[in-house]
Design brief:
The chain is of the alpha+beta class. It has one domain: 7,8-Dihydro-6-hydroxymethylpterin-pyrophosphokinase HPPK (Alpha-Beta Plaits, 2-Layer Sandwich), CATH 3.30.70.560. It starts with 5 loop residues before the first strand and ends with a strand. The strands form two sheets. Strands 1, 2, 3, 4, 5 and 8 form a six-stranded antiparallel β-sheet that branches. It has a two-stranded antiparallel sheet with strand order 6-7. It has four helices and eight strands; from the N terminus they run E-H-E-E-E-H-E-E-E-H-H-E. The relative contact order is 0.22.
Length: about 170
Amino acid sequence: MKGASIKAYVGMGSNLGDRAGNMLLGVRGMMNAGLCVSRLSSIYETEPVDVKDQPAFLNMVAELSIEQLPSPEQLMARLLRIEYALGRRREMRRGPRIIDLDLLLYGQETRTSEFLRLPHPRLHLRRFVLTPLAELAPRFIHPSINQTIAQLLSKTMDDSKVRRWQA
């Protein structure tokens, strides 16, 4: 008998090199790591938020359907290995990056540890995360804030530019 499927959402971003290619390699890396990528949002071009003096990002969200559960910590460890394999080095906090894979949501799980915080602590503050996430899961209720993703997007104070990217 199969267990109930849990949805997890991974925020993806790149602003160095072949940005779209880097994100596709990230998706392939997740699939190669045994994760079921069930849906992808559109790709959005976004301006940098914290460190402004860097190239524009491409961002998207991947939905994972998980029946055979790795723990959230194991999932995060897989995402970090994918980043490293694709050349990500953490030299500057919130600076330019080849690939960024953030575990945003893992069902209704809430966790706080040195290694992982769920839901992602800034997802409700970031238009570049909320826009693609709302495309996939507008009625998903944020486990800590108890509002839907669509509500969070409509109320965000982040006025950074986020526009659908055309190749």
